[in-house]
Structures are given as C-alpha cells and as structure tokens.
Known about the structure:
Helices cover 49% and strands 15% of the residues. The chain is an alpha/beta fold.
Amino acid sequence: MSKIKNIVFDFGGVLIDWNPHYLYRDYFKDEKEMDYFLENICTQTWNTEQDRGRSFDEAVRILQEQYPEYHEAISLYRDGWQHMIKGEIKKGVDLLRRLKSEGYKIYGLTNWSAEKIGIAYDMFDFFSLFDGIVVSGEEKVIKPDRRIFEILLARYDLKADESIFIDDNLFNIKAAENLGFNAILCDDFARVNREVDRLLRS
C-alpha cells in the first residue's frame, strides 16, 4: 500500500506554457534583437527577482535607467505580461485532474510574481482543484531554497515522504529530494506518468 497522499505541482513548464518570446515576437521585427533583449536586458535572472517579491514597477525602473533605448520594450514586460502565457500544458493538467479524481490532495509550489499570479488563476479553471498553493513572490523566498518547501509542509501539515513533487527544474528537484520528497523531473510526460504510477503502487 503506497504511503503517498499528496501531489505537489510546479506551474510553469509543468501546467502552464509561459515564455516571454510569445509576447516579444509580436514586438520585435528582428528575432535576433528579441533574443539579445531577453538574454541581456530582461533576463531570467532579472525576472527571478520579481518571483522573489520585487515589484514590477521597481524592476522596470531599474532597467529603463540602464537601457533607455529599450524604455518601451522594458515596460511591455510588465504591461503585456499576460501575453507570455500561451495556454495550459495539456498532459500536465490531465495528470493533475486524474490524480485529483483518484482522491489525492493537490498542492502548488511555484516561483511566480505575487503581482501576476492572479492573472494565471483567472485564466485556468484547474486551479479550483488545488488544496493549497505557495507562491514565492508572496513568501519572498524562491525555489530551490529549502525554506519555501518548509513553508509548504508546515502550512498544510504535509510530510515530504508522503508527497510527490513534480518540477521542470533540476535544482528544485534536488532540493526537494534533500528534504525527503519523492521528486520527479518533468522533462518527458510519458516518463513522469510512469514514475507517478510506480510511486503510487509502491
């Protein structure tokens, strides 16, 4: 009899197809300039600070002072953010719905801006299936910091060894494993489903 009671999902790359390229392909006429902009100006490292709790207004101001020639494009990262979401990742959402229907508790643990998470909640009805969600921007701490995993465990009275954690980032997977989670890297949904089923049978 499996001891698994809870399934913890990351959002981006697991349930939601989010990518800044979806927004900026319609803005930049030259794809090379778009790539330069996202690799050197509005970078993932810069965006991570919004996931950690920094406001978008502050983040935009900092970059606009550094790169005034990209003033409008930098503002667009804040003002057109919803267009970075292409849709749900069907295979991930199908897995979530199946596990919920089988009686498992469903939780979310995501690196996401506190300002923007409400947009995602409004876009996707599957969020009604969650028993609890921890958002990095609200907690001011991001994965793979062990503290955000500990917040999840304490807030919802969970045990790591009774929980499966699914994420598309290897560093987050390693952090979860170190805390005792049954962690699965989401890089191939066929494999993810096999691993989930193996853990539920074990």
